[in-house]
Design goal:
By secondary structure, this protein is α+β, with helices and mostly antiparallel strands. Among the domains are: 46-79 and 237-283, no CATH class; 86-194, Elongation Factor Tu (Ef-tu), domain 3, CATH 2.40.30. It has helices at 11-63, 166-169, and strands at 73-76, 80-91, 94-95, 101-104, 117-118, 127-134, 138-145, 151-154, 172-176, 190-203, 209-216, 228-234, 239-244, 259-267, 275-283. The strands form three sheets. Strands 1, 2, 5, 6, 7, 10, 11 and 12 form an eight-stranded antiparallel beta sheet that branches. The chain has a four-stranded antiparallel beta sheet with strand order 3-4-9-8, with no helix packed on it. The N and C termini lie far apart (112 Å).
Length: 286
């Protein structure tokens, strides 16, 4: 009698295979978990480093052009700074007979010339600074207040040289002022529209620290709006300002500031005890 060969695996063989598969699966899972932790840590590091770079870039852009001796710094503190923020820049195209109304070129010209830049919506109550030539003081900024938002019903004729097409000439912006311009101001004078603004480190409702921004306008029912986060989160005390004068000594006088040193510190989300920091120095225009 011939016996058929035995088929299948023995119990011992099954136990060995299952054990090997379990070991292999555990090792694979361990590698996957390790890789996930690694990528999360890397992502957290990239995020915190980007946060401190954002702060450095932001302050370089916003503060470098300030002239403290002209009053561009309103208040200074270790975790906050109030300054004169530029909303728009342009040149005077025409001046009305009353000298209380001017036009500026449109923002987008057919020639591509960047004569007008508007970064933030301009409102009634914003301050207009016009560069005037004074025989005694030299070039000085004359201060006026806008009585209305810019109007699109202005004319900036091609004869002024600031526009080249009829469409551009008809698209000038009109600015109404609270008082007449001085007689020394002529077409071509530089203008800036500014508003009081503030950057500060604040604690939000999620208990994290953020760099916040707000601006103030006297014509609003509530002059200063609610602080809004622009960057973060940061470590506690994660934004620090130091103000130095021309001699390199620290000063608390906004008019004497020549340099601002900023230190930004951010904690990593996956490792709160691990900090990333970036220091930047801003030399102001004096």
């Amino acid at each position: 009698m011939i016996c058929a060969p035995r088929r299948g695996a023995s119990l011992v063989e099954l136990i060995v295979v299952i054990t090997l598969l379990a070991i292999l699966g555990t090792a694979t899972l361990s590698i996957v978990i390790h890789q996930e932790r690694f990528y999360r840590a890397q992502s957290s590091a990239i995020g915190s480093r980007a946060t401190v770079r954002d702060a450095a870039s932001l302050f370089q852009t916003e503060l470098r052009a300030l002239t403290p001796e002209d009053g561009d710094l309103y208040a200074i503190g270790s975790s906050a700074v109030e300054y004169r923020a530029t909303l728009a820049q342009s040149v005077v195209c025409t001046i009305s007979p009353s000298r209380a109304r001017i036009t500026i070129p449109p923002e987008h010209l057919a020639s591509g010339a960047p004569l007008t830049w508007i970064g933030t919506q301009v409102e009634a109550g914003d301050t207009l600074l016009v560069l005037a030539t004074d025989s005694t003081l030299g070039d000085v900024w004359q201060r006026h207040v806008l009585t209305a938002p810019p109007s699109g019903a202005g004319s900036c004729p091609t004869a002024t040289g600031f526009t080249m097409t009829a469409a551009d000439a008809a698209a000038g912006l009109t600015l109404a002022l609270d008082s007449p311009l001085e007689s020394t101001i002529e077409p071509g004078a530089l203008v800036r529209i500014v508003r009081r603004a503030r950057y500060e480190l604040y604690r939000a409702s999620d208990s994290r620290w953020y760099l916040g921004y707000l601006d103030c306008l006297s014509t609003r029912a509530t002059p200063c709006n609610i602080v809004q986060p622009v960057s973060g989160p940061y470590a506690s005390g994660g934004i620090h300002f130091a103000y130095l004068d021309l001699a390199g000594a620290e000063t608390a006088d906004p008019f004497r500031v020549a340099r601002i040193d900023v230190l930004a510190i951010a904690a990593r989300r996956t490792a709160p005890d691990t900090l990333d920091s970036l220091a930047t120095t801003i030399a102001l225009r004096n």
